[in-house]
What does this fold into?
Amino acid sequence: MKFSIVIPTYNEAGGIEKLVTTLADVFTAHGLDGELIVVDDNSPDGTGAIVDRLAGRFPVRCLHRPGKLGLSSGVIDGWRWARAESQALGAIDADFSHDPQIIPRMVQALESGRYGLAVGSRYVKGGGITNWPLKRKVTSIIACMLAWPLTPIRDITSGFLLVRRDALAGVALDPIGFKIGLEVAAKAHYGKALEVPYVFADRVVGESKLNGKEITNYLRQLRRIYAGRILGRRSAHSAAASLAGAPAEKTV
Ligand SMILES: Nc1nc2c(ncn2[C@@H]2O[C@H](COP(=O)(O)OP(=O)(O)O)[C@@H](O)[C@H]2O)c(=O)[nH]1
Ligand SMILES: [Mg+2]
It folds into this structure.
């Protein structure tokens, strides 16, 4: 199965080359036909230029956006830009928090035909979190619990996922905030989902972009999804964007 994985970046110059080469090695070692799409929001540290230099040697392309437009909207724009042959679309953070070594299992899950969505999960047996402060662990668990009524997926705030492309057909994904995994899990037509355990490691290079605004965005996103469910509609918000069409350069 051919697939495309988006890496959203904002100031990830310290680790992006290592991540691209590591992912390319994983693809080669497992005979996987994966494409990498870095969506860079004009990072002041030059992340996008680094990726452009890697593009000839590795299966990677960079979508340059003009400014910081948000994580979820970056993933959605990257998916729109994915090569036509890819039957699955994914996302992984640029900071090595998500373990690239589980990608072959995620691909296998979709290839088996039993699952339409594979989620890298901290909250199933075998998964976990290292070196996160207690405050962040508690915030993450509460964030997940707020979404548990929506799906059986435990790690609903995970941004590490692979989904069948056809599961997104006609689905209006809301580009708000950080939690693209929640959008997909709550709205896409994927049938069954598999949570693949991994141990989340806090970044060692660069800085987290999660802030109070993103926490508010998450609560707004949840409110829209719950409202959509209650009203019997898939999405309750007019800003929602389907995957059809070219990636927006400004707002989605
Ligand atoms: N393109 C883009 N990427 C972003 C943006 N905000 C965060 N990211 C990327 O999204 C990923 C997760 O962000 P991070 O700061 O590590 O969040 P945390 O893991 O929740 O602390 C990283 O690869 C970031 O570089 C954004 O506004 N635009
Ligand atoms: Mg991170």
